[in-house]
């Protein structure tokens, strides 16, 4: 009977997690987690945002009406020019002496 | 620490004379074992760099907006058929067959060009000479002989060479393909677990391997902790398994973490082909292929982490994919852990040992000291407490020489090679 009262360490950890993230889904190993895994590497390119970012660069000299610090997605979406340049360093692996 | 240097795979070849490593930067480094010689008795069995080459480059799939990492996920050697060595290396999308050959002779005395390469004026040549082969310093060249591309929508996690030495399989999250080593424009899909509606997705393929001597048999593991054994003679599409291995779970002990920690990160057949071993987050299990109901042996790798699952989930460590390996005689198994620790289990004596792969704890030709993690209560001298473990120092990849007690351990960007002490 004593053993029934002992809570497994796993259940203690589960309670901790649920306390920190009360909205955590009840199906943890399910679709959300798996779909995140399948989408690894996904980067989104939006031509609208890209053109806005390009226009923003050109208009850098003009004073802006508002200096809001709100995030503009155009600034953060990677542009095609950025991506292909991401080459590995040509320095040989350190293991190769 | 340059992330490109992080080792992502380690593999001995069939003889154990060559050891290949792949890294996050898409490079392969091959080490060769020194031959024993009377002149240098102390360098018996030392591994030195033999060849290094860039296997994969980063790519961007514009159509799918997908960034394709150059990281080498797996390397598998092909059996040696001639003087050259061949291996398969794969990133998330493309498998390549590399041929590594030695050149120690060069031709000298060409008719139409000088030794420095300048062309000779043909009208000035008055006599014929035959080029002669002269010895030169050994050059090891790697060339890509086959590129197996565009067959995987999802990320490749495994490749495995079949015992027929003609075919191999490649597995991604949802599908497994069978290839012929000579044919790059076609592959057969042999397993497809993609549901018609992706909302119904409940599990993914985590690893796959061909049986070591039955060329019609292979296994694949899942994120739900199950293993399916398939027979390619039974049907063209092996969606229906021949055997299904799953350990029964006590429903009362189920928690949020149960499924995540049961996910199998590696599956390896024993050399005998009679057993297979699976690695999940906290343990290594040995299964008898004749018994599907439960494993025959279970080894706890780091059970003390069960009471740390909450933070391990938050820092994503709970998703770390540890590999495991057998020794040549199948009497021992090895797998990695955190804090640069790795564990070895002797299946006969049931003894286990924890060792550390780090500069501080290993000196050349020094003997490794066993390590111990203190799980609670008073910490003894030399023990390390669970809270002091460095979870950034993970040993995910280890390999055991096929015949001798030589092991290779990858600790982030460093490779350690340990040998049984010589008597």
UniProtKB/TrEMBL annotation, chain A:
Keyword hit for tRNA processing: no
Q: Region (Disordered) spans which residues?
A: 58-97
Superkingdom field: Eukaryota
InterPro entries tied to this protein: Endosulphine
Entry keyword annotation includes Phosphoprotein: yes
Q: Where in the cell is it found?
A: Cytoplasm
Which keywords appear in this protein's UniProt record, sorted alphabetically? Cell cycle, Cell division, Cytoplasm, Mitosis, Phosphoprotein, Protein phosphatase inhibitor
UniProt main location, coarse = cytoplasm
Record's function text: Protein phosphatase inhibitor that specifically inhibits protein phosphatase 2A (PP2A) during mitosis.
Spell out the family assignment given in the record's similarity comment: Belongs to the endosulfine family.
Any idea what this protein is called? ARP19 protein
From TrEMBL, chain B:
The protein's matches in PROSITE patterns, at most eight in alphabetical order, are given as: PR55_1 (PS01024), PR55_2 (PS01025)
Question: Which keywords are on file for this protein?
Answer: Repeat, WD repeat
**InterPro entries in alphabetical order:** PP2A_PR55, PP2A_PR55_CS, WD40/YVTN_repeat-like_dom_sf, WD40_repeat_dom_sf, WD40_rpt
Repeat recorded as keyword: yes
At the top level of its lineage, which domain of life is listed? Eukaryota
PANTHER family associated with the record:
PROTEIN PHOSPHATASE PP2A REGULATORY SUBUNIT B
Recorded family membership: Belongs to the phosphatase 2A regulatory subunit B family.
**Name of protein:** Serine/threonine-protein phosphatase 2A 55 kDa regulatory subunit B
